[in-house]
Amino acid sequence: MGIIERIKEIEAEMARTQKNKATEYHLGQLKAKIAKLRTQLLEPPKGSSAGGDGFEVTKFGHGRVALIGFPSVGKSTLLTMLTGTHSEAASYEFTTLTCIPGIIHYNDTKIQLLDLPGIIEGASEGKGRGRQVIAVAKSSDLVLMVLDASKSEGHRQILTRELESVGLRLNKRPPQIYFKKKKTGGISFNSTLPLTHVDEKLCYQILHEYKIHNAEVLFREDATVDDLIDVIEGNRKYTKCVYVYNKIDVIGIDDVDKLARRPNSVVISCNLKLNLDRLLSKMWEEMGLVRVYTKPQGQQPDFSDPMVLSADRGGCTVEDFCNHIHRNLIKDVKYVLVWGTSARHYPQHCGLGHVLQDEDVVQIVKKKEKEEGGRGRFKSHSTAPARISDRQKKAPLKT
Ligand SMILES: Nc1nc2c(ncn2[C@@H]2O[C@H](COP(=O)(O)OP(=O)(O)OP(=O)(O)O)[C@@H](O)[C@H]2O)c(=O)[nH]1
Ligand SMILES: [K+]
Ligand SMILES: [Mg+2]
């Protein structure tokens, strides 16, 4: 029997099983069995080289955004509108057959946008090009789930389920469960609060299913069996997702209004070029990119050329910033001067652990190097920098 059939069989058994206190251990075990099979399903078949079908696109820019959706919802039309790269669009389904990259230039950063073939129910089990598409979604910093505003709301749930079943978690944070395998000592099970979904016995049973007999488990929230399985599997990808309802030109204003009020949703019309700027700003917000401008001593920063950091990709501390400039820089850094929203006063003397925020300005002060003019005797500059946030404008950059 193939893996997919075995998953189907276990799912059927779960559906037959009544949910109550007596069956909860058994159901938990079945969930773990399915999770294990799904993980097997993700491993590439032996002897096959990965890809080779036009899906591997080199990462480019400061972040990657994937367009995921059913066929003919307008993914390619949207890519063409936002990036200027032409991607064939037509009224028939499966017009797009590979991954097509474009670049969005936004706030002096470059964001890679990927157009992808439409996916359908069963994609995670290999229907259509589902598995390749989902692999691209997993490699992205943000998923734009494109939906046809005139079609059934069920599509959103079907797609979410497909992505979930291959370990992609949309708009969720990792469960607060500490889990560490050990060599000896048995299983230690603890929690920092009363648990209502999982008890010691259930936890043991799940671990047993994974043949784990020595481990430390600490629940820091009232997590579920599914959360525990996610933590044990350890291969889950937590990604932000914006729901993009396209084609609002074909529905009534009341329906548009309802969709627009949903969480993490943006309503657009590619045909009428409606709300695309809102989509871009939402995308920017969700990506959480942090632009940092380097200020050489005695000069104004170049506000058109930021260093782009991100909490998801490498972090936003002063140390991350220095490492971005040069691997060996860090050992020469004495401290940095920071202007911008992360600073309490201008300039603030900060250490390597200081967390930078978008549009901060940083000057590196190296060891054995004196600040220009010395501390407390900053030269003032009368020329205001070209682009700077309002708060920064109030305090012209000195030093
Ligand atoms: N009414 C309306 N039609 C649109 C809009 N955006 C795209 N379309 C149409 O929807 C159809 C499908 O558009 P595509 O961009 O090919 O859709 P897709 O999601 O890339 O489709 P596949 O590649 O086949 O998965 C085309 O006929 C587009 O002209 C819109 O905002 N309003
Ligand atoms: K199409
Ligand atoms: Mg397309």
Automatic annotation (TrEMBL):
Residues 368-399 are annotated as: Disordered. It comes from the Eukaryota. Residues 63-288 form the OBG-type G domain. Signal peptide: none annotated. InterPro entries: Beta-grasp_dom_sf, DRG, G_OBG, GTP-bd, GTP-binding_2, GTP1-OBG_CS, P-loop_NTPase, Small_GTP-bd. The keyword GTP-binding applies. Keywords: GTP-binding, Nucleotide-binding. Residues 288-366 form the TGS domain. Transmembrane segments: none annotated. This is OBG-type G domain-containing protein. GO terms for molecular function: GTP binding; GTPase activity. PROSITE patterns: G_OBG (PS51710), GTP1_OBG (PS00905), TGS (PS51880). The keyword GTP-binding applies.
